[in-house]
């Protein structure tokens, strides 16, 4: 008896396609068991650079380095996350700003005003005059030469200013300096700071006040020239200060940036995907735009505010997505990806997501 | 009970020492065709009220009070048999194996005729028969149509998995093209032809025989048997007193208990049978809890030998959570619950499960049957029947229900109805954004079916009859739960109550009645050319009148015109038993079928305008069959070719220029061919060890491309800017038909390890299932000839065991059953969305399920 049963089971197993008919499909679709899709925000920590990536410094040298190395960190940190996951990663990048190699301290004379100014008054009243002066007087300036220039400037009234002019890569660059009064406001009896620490502490506070009426955005970097009294003489220096959205602080040549990565089922790749959910205006827009082409489906869409799956097939839905994204982001670059979410009706309402990318011909196509 | 009575009676006889002759007869009754035991056969001593019924193994023991006489054996669908006996006093005599032939005769002849059953080696159609004992052994917790899955040409699934939500396709045709008849009465929906198995959820309990006639079938009445006919014969008159109590438990809280009791045939010729059961469970898939009550009543009165009156009523009141939303494979795999159990359509409200997709229905079916033996040669059976369906499905309004933001957690978590309720309450006088309503589909259905049969000569039998039906179906949306809102503002601009604040119980969106009046006559002649060669010819003609009445929309014409369709069919066939164990048969048929009401009134929800160009569909079918029979081997081979000629596909959409009118299209001449080979065999290796198998190879496809023109509501062709008619093109040529496995096979083995105990294993394979699509949507020439995505082939094992034993004075049976024993993950249903497996919307089949049941017969 047992033999017969074994035979039957054996025979049928031969005929059968194995116990897991779904295996091939899962392979084709690149679906792993227990795959998690999630969105995370992460800021790299020091040990991510040093331990996981084995770097000497806690920052990257370039954005390309960040793009190629961050996936390692994500795979290590979030092994469970799989296809479709998005990670917004904040990291530090080394981005040094040039400092002065040599310093020229100069105070403009009446001859200078006469030679480079455009009127008889002993001052300058336009920035171009100053640049003319610099080009005329220092035609052979070495790269990274800082001219700490004290000059009278007319702007409704004559004022003595001390600003830096920094010669880098063949261009003169304006570096904001401080006047005698400004040093006084910062609590200095003389037009200088006593030491670097004092400068780095006071300048941010002063900048906050100085730029209070101007639009400053997080990440803006402001070069500043300040003076120190050192070994009996006054020396000018360049320092950069960075705004974090609230406060200024000394820029340490490390810039914080954010990049988005997406999981393609195997690994994390830099990804510009934007997730977007349709609003009720979007449904209305799609219904209006496509009404002549699909009168029936759009009729239903404007009545119910969702896509009835029996009326909207995949191609039609893509057209609707094109309408909405073209409206939302008309200037999106080729290669821009979106994951759009919209409501469908198939007996009950549910959300559906679809990944699209802007193609060469400007249309949005399935990813 | 009767055993005790008999025992007492015997004891009493012995005590009183009456010198009355007596003895005990035993025997076994089997189906003459298959040699399988026939349970429930009535065994009666002629001229007395002494009777018993056979047990599940066809065995009976009867005490007789005379030395010689006649035993009458009778069973629905089989010819009665009389067996003479002589017995000495006190003797116990074994009459051996007695076989009943499925044939015409006496009362059974009436039933065979009335129920349109096919007779082996006589009726030339492809047929498979499933008996009540197989249902008891193999159905378990499956959907009722799934019992047919080992039958060639059948594809049965649970669909979403809700209780009663199963479906069955025959030869690639879906339910509107498969006739389902219960006790001879057609039960396909009168408006759209569909079969809702949830209406008949308890039917497995009271079915005595289920016969699947593939292809044209043996029905004389005009029925939509393009794919085939499923004939279900319920239990009817039980001549002997007795009953049964039973209980089953199974996976996911499945619990069923019930009882059946028959009074037996009284001296005055009255018999009653009552059966009732209750069923509930949580469902294998999440959120598919269900509860149902099944009942069956038969009251019969034998007025005199020539007149039998029988009243049948049965029904299944049920409500169950549903899984409507299909997901992509990838989405299912991402769910926490996994593809087999995930369901998006349920959540929690006030701490209790609350479904966004839910079904509740009750459809009692009643019939009064009169069987009249007019003469030896003539009989007439008449059924007057009525059925009242009430119930519907839950629907949702608003964008919150089902969206990810209103779930308790992620996209794969239950719906957070409480959050919606809170927000609706906060909105106060602004009214509900989201609410729950019922899409009700209730109906009343009255019919008469009368069949006359006359054995005109020895060789010629003529039958004929009438088929009359009246049906009115009411369809409306009714608010059932405002989810905490003060009211819901009706935003359906075409409703008479548009812009009004509606409350629970108010109607909106849809409210119309569909009416169908149908009358037909049918006739059939059977002629025995030789003893072993017979032919038949049958014809039917019927007129169907459709109309609709709109109760809600702001339209001038509330009642539609009446639209008539004349349908007819002719079929003929022959069977030749060219040796004692071989036969061949052939049949051919053509019919022209009225379109469904839903194809005539394309937008019954909003309009009473009929699609003036709706036409009948024509079907031409041919079939060849071969049968081979040895005592222990039975083989059936069928070849079929069904041509669907001129399938008409109609649709409508609202006119962009005027939203209140609709434009129509009628695509005519879409042709399909369903052809294939079916092999069925059973082989009894020994008396105890049996083997059966089935192979079905289908080749079902659309055969041509078609085009149609757009028309306005007056049937005028619409022209485009260039003055030419606006056309629709459908590229359907050579596309495989979807939604059913074109290749299936099954092998099974059973072993009787004790006289009344069996163990079995079945393997069912389904392959070449192309995902489902609407052929009219294939309007992209670039996709011409490209089949839809083919779902992965799969094979499933079922195991079961039955053990019968004496339990005091009762006979007890224990059944154990495991479906999908290997817990295989597979796709049972798929809707094509383009882009293959990536986008196909699917249902996964259930994983391993089990049930154990216990019966006690008395």
From TrEMBL, chain A:
Record's protein name: DUF5017 domain-containing protein
Phylogenetic lineage: Bacteria, Pseudomonadati, Bacteroidota, Flavobacteriia, Flavobacteriales
PROSITE patterns, per the entry: PROKAR_LIPOPROTEIN
